[in-house]
Amino acid sequence: MTNSPVAFIDIGTSRLDVVESLETSGALEIPKPLDALSGNELVRKAQIGKVGTEVLRYLTNAFTGRGFTWLLPVIFSKSTDPLWPDPGASIEKRVETEIYGETVRTTLSMIIHKLVACSTAYPKFFVLSPNVRIERRERKATGWHAYEFTQLDFELAGAGFRDVRRLVEAVIAGLVSHVKKRAERELKSLGRYGSLKTPETPFRVYDREDLEAKYEGRWEVSLPQDIREPVWVTNIPREFYDFEDAATGRWDNYDLFLPKYGEVLSGARREWEYGKIVAKMERDGVKKENYTLLLTLAKEGKLKPSAGAGIGVERLMTWVAGARHVGEVQAFPKVPGVVYEL
Ligand code: AMP
Ligand code: MG
């Protein structure tokens, strides 16, 4: 791997300042590697591992049981998520290397692959996808960021927010019931059994504009402290692939927030029209040459309308287990700014 950052988009200073204000600086204990854990800490680690196993068992059954095809992930591609503009993104560097004379990047997310897969052979699928995001080191203190993590990334042709909402709400509610049944002993020992309640559906939906007005801009940090149930937030300006209504300026996208913790899912109905995608890339300074295949498909009318989302698997496990840091649910913690041997 080269150590040089990949300059395929520009991250403006003002955007980073906004992100910086989201950072918390509490005295959170940084998750330790396996070899540094005490006997009691190893027991706790194993209990979280059992809870995580039940989360994975339930999620994969829920999606395959609903007819989703299960794909395996990719690590290296010429094209990956620009992660720009996204008010939540804060990347220190982008990892790229050369293989077979070609420059490839490690997966930031599989969104580009999802759009192509969903428009061709796989109209309904999910993938457990490792993402490498070298988050700014200050983010170790949020307890909510890792520099390697996994998305349960799914996409559904011809779908909209209503379909995704119904699916995700059923999955989250079912997941809590399942884990409470299958890992009761572990949840009790972790002190989480009583406080983890099956959420009531449907979840409430907030518009980002209303939250900005209420919280004066810092809604991503304040909202999770104010809610008792998971809630949706819609209409968030971000990357070109999320659908933006040209007439109203409204974004047909959605994030799911968990009480006390924060964002666990981002998703959207997608753009599929060539002219709109190009205009948004030009507006945002995203290099079109990194998205040749996607643009060709769109130009030929082969990109299909779809909707989907990515669920942060470690974040979901952290919430279910009541863990303090997302690195605690990782066997090999990948905490921003902290590089262990394994
Ligand atoms: P995004 O589309 O960028 O919001 O990513 C999808 C989901 O992945 C988010 O909603 C989070 O749950 C999860 N995620 C994003 N970044 C991280 C990170 N650095 N560490 C752990 N989970 C993350
Ligand atoms: Mg997000």
Word description of this protein:
This protein is of the alpha+beta class and 342 residues long. The protein has one domain: BirA Bifunctional Protein, domain 2 (2-Layer Sandwich). It is 34% helix and 20% strand. It has ten helices and 13 strands. The strands form three sheets. It has an eight-stranded mixed sheet with strand order 1-6-8-13-12-11-10-9. A three-stranded antiparallel sheet has the order 2-5-4, with no helix packed on it. Strand 4 and strand 5 (102-106) form a beta hairpin. Helix 8 (274-284) runs antiparallel to helix 9 (292-299). The protein is globular and about 60 Å long. Mean pLDDT is 93; it is low at 1-25. The structure holds adenosine monophosphate and magnesium ion. Magnesium ion binds at residues 88, 255, 263, 266.
Summarize the structure.
By secondary structure, this protein is of the alpha+beta class. It has helices at about 15-20, 40-65, 110-120, 160-180, 185-190, 210-215, 220-225, 275-285, 290-300, 315-320, and strands at about 70, 75, 90-95, 95-100, 100-105, 125-130, 135, 150-155, 205, 230-235, 255-260, 260-270, 305-310.
Q: Briefly note the CATH topology name.
A: BirA Bifunctional Protein, domain 2
Strand percentage lies at 15-25%
- Global morphology: globular
Helix content estimate: 25-40%
> Gap between N and C termini, in Å?
17 Å
